Fold this sequence. Notes:
The chain has ten helices and nine strands. The protein has helices spanning 2-19, 34-38, 103-113, 146-154, 159-170, 173-187, 209-219, 223-229, 255-258, 306-321; strands at 75-80, 85-90, 119-121, 143-145, 233-239, 245-251, 267-277, 281-290, 295-303.
Amino acid sequence: MKRKVFVTSGCIILSALFLTGCAGLHKLDNPYEFSERTALYQSASVAGKSETFAHDLCVVSKDTADSDSSVTAEAAAVFDLSDNNVIFAKNPFEKLYPASITKTMTALLAVKYGDLSDEVTVTKDAVIKESGASLCGIKPGDKLTMEQLLYGLMIPSGNDAGVAIAVNMAGSVDQFAQMMNDEAKKLGATGTHFVNPHGLSDEDHYTTAYDLYLIFNEALKYPEFRKIIGTAEYKTSYQGGDGKTVNETWKGTNWYMTGERKTPDGLTVLGGKTGTTLSAGSCLIMGSSDSSKNEYISVVLKARDHAGLYDNMSNILNKIVE
Length: 322
C-alpha cells in the first residue's frame, strides 16, 4: 500500500513540474541571447516602466562593425555621451585582457573614496620585477601624496604607483582588487574581474570594451580625474626613503597628447589611458570632445601594435565627425 502511494505521489509531482514550465530548463542548451544582456540597460521611455539605473548610459543594441574592415583590433567602440548614442561597436562584450587600462579603475577608486592629500609611505609591496613592466620609479620608504601617486599611475603608467595606492587604501593588493570588483558590479560592469590594480597579465583579470566605457564614464564625473588624464607631462618632487628630495618628470604615453599622432580634425583629446602587454596587445581608452563641446568615449582593445592601435583609434574617431 505504501509503495502505491509513493509511486502515485511521484507521478503527481512530475506532472505538476511539466505543467508549471519547469521542463523549460532544457533552454539552458542555448542560455545566452544578446537581447537578454541589453535588457538590463533598456530605456525608461517605455510606457508604464520606471526609470532604470542605466537611463543615462549608452546601450549597445547591435554590433556595428560587420562591414568595416578598417577596424582590425579585436574590440573597439565609440560612445556619444551627449545623447547616449553608440556610434560604433565591435565585439563590445568580448572578455579581453585590459593591460594598463586597468588603472582607470584604480584611479576612480582613489578619487572617489580616497583623500588625495594623504601622505603615503611606499612599502616593499610596490617593488615589481616583472620584465617590461612600466614603472614611475618610486621605492620603499619614499613619501608621496595620493595625488602624486595618481600622476605616477596615469602619466608614465607606473605599476609601482598602482600597488602603493592599493596598499594604502585597502591594506593589500587582494583587498583592493575586491574593492575594484565591488565597484565594477555597482557600475553594471558584469563582464569584468580584476586581480590587481595595474593590469599585469593574469588569466583571471579581464574586462570588455563596454565595461571599460562604464568605468571611464564614471571616472569622468570627477574633476581630479579629468585633470590628471589631461596632463601630458608632470614634474614633481617628493621625499625619498633616504630623506633626500627626489625630482621627477613623468611623461605621458598617449600619442595624440605627445604629438606622435595627429588627432582627427574637429576633435580635442581630453585624455585617457594606454595599455600594452603581450597577452592584451595594444590598447587605449580615452575621452574627446568636438567643436560643440559634446563629449565621447572611445576604446580600442588588442590591436596588433602601437601603430595599429592609433590607426584603429583614428578610424573610429573619424566616425564622430563624418
